[in-house]
Each structure stands twice: as C-alpha cells, then as structure tokens.
Specification:
Layout (H helix, E strand, L loop, with lengths): L1 E5 L6 H12 L2 E4 H14 L7 H9 L3 E4 L2 E4 L2 E2 L7 H11 L2 H14 L5 E5 L2 H5 L5 E6 L2 H14 L6 H17 L12 E4 L5 H18 L6
Helix pairs in contact: 1-9, 2-4, 3-5, 4-8, 7-8
C-alpha cells in the first residue's frame, strides 16, 4: 500500500508522514529530502544552479540512504544539514529543472518498490505515484506555515526573522506552483486536510483513520 502525502512548505507533511508511517508500521520516504540532498551537494561543490548538465551529472551519481528516519549522503548523516535556510532558498530552483526531475524520478520509485510506504512531497499523488492507494493533500494558511517553519529553525539556533521565513515560503510556493514540470497541485482524487487549526496528533490520527479504512475496504483487515 502506498499513502501519498502532498502539500506546500510548512503544511506539516514531513512530521505527519513520519508519524503515520510509525503507527502503520510502513516505510517512510521523504522525497523532498532527495532534492534537498542534491541541493546541499550542489551548494557545497559550488555548482551554479544554471549549469543543468553538471547538476544532472551529480544527480545521477547521488548516493543516498534512508535509515531510521535519517538521511545519509555518501555515508554521512545530513539529516539536519538539508534543513538549513541556505538549502530552503535553493531547493525549489533545483527541483523545477526537468532534467533533474527526470533523473530522480526512478530513484524515488525504486526506494519503495515492494514496500508498504508513506511517501511525501509535492507531486507524489500527481506524478511519482499516480496510482497511490490513498492520497492526502495537506494545507494551512501562509502565516501558520511560516510560523511553524520559523519556530523549527529558531529551536535549532538559526538566526532568521519570521518575515524572512514568510517571504522565503511565499517565493517557494510561487516557484513550486508555477514550474513547468510536476507543479505543486492537488490530485483530483486526493483528500484535502486544512491543518491550520489542527494539532499534529489530530492530523496524524485522521490520516491513519483514512488509511485503515482503505485497508479494511481492501479486505486486509476484517475488523
């Protein structure tokens, strides 16, 4: 079974997907982490984000592993590094490049092949896993999404203002929604959940309920 969770930055996708996967005993895949990992590598190697040929070359050689909700690039734990504001500012620019997405699409599918999985990103239900058993689209107001992201960054000692986070978020929304390939949008058969006034636990419980209902309907559970 594939549970696909999509939505804009700060909608709660990552936290919700992790917890849902834990409760269901499913494999968890943060596809955004794949693009963030590539972005981090490009920034560290000072590759211009206009050099598509070099970006594609590095994407092809990307050695990523996901272990116990941690992300490893070439054997190094980069779980925290990929959440740095510098990566935030550049990841949408990397993710909108068709040649990069073409390289990384098979990798995303291969990582969950033969598994029960919760996958999250921006085009899970529309492009990467169009036949997912359950599709969820999480939303929240711009201000609430920015507040969550600012709070997360502040707790990690990042010196950044709320307004900077809000402006970055608006810019990312625009890039993600207007890119030519696999733009951020709700799949017609996805269930939309507005998380603005919901706690994480409330959202998780709702997604788990929907997943279990699907499994029961498919005859996996008898009660």
């Amino acid at each position: 079974m594939i549970v696909a969770i999509d939505g804009p930055a700060g909608s709660g996708k990552t936290t919700v997907a992790k917890l849902v996967a834990q409760k269901l005993g499913f494999f968890y895949l943060d596809t955004g982490a794949i693009y963030r990992s590539l972005t981090l590598k490009l920034l560290k190697e000072r590759v211009p984000l206009t050099d598509v040929s070099k970006m594609r070359e590095i994407a092809r050689s990307l050695r990523l592993e996901f272990k116990r909700e941690k992300v490893f690039l070439e054997g190094k734990d980069i779980t925290e590094d990929i959440r740095d504001p510098s990566v935030d500012r550049s990841v949408s620019l990397v993710a909108k490049i068709p040649e990069v997405r073409e390289v990384l699409l098979p990798l995303q599918r291969e990582l969950v092949k033969g598994k029960n999985a919760v996958v999250e990103g921006r085009d899970m239900g529309t492009v990467v896993f169009p036949n997912a058993d359950l599709k969820i689209f999480l939303t929240a107001s711009e201000e609430e999404r920015a507040r969550r992201r600012w709070k997360e960054l502040s707790s990690k000692g990042k010196d950044i203002s709320f307004m900077e986070v809000l402006e970055d978020l608006k810019r990312r929304d625009k890039i993600d929604s207007e890119r030519d390939v696999a733009p951020l949008r709700k799949s017609p058969d996805a269930i939309e959940i507005d998380t603005t006034d919901m706690s994480i636990n409330e959202v998780v419980e709702e997604v788990v309920r929907l997943a279990l209902r699907h499994l029961k309907g498919a005859g996996v559970f008898s009660s």
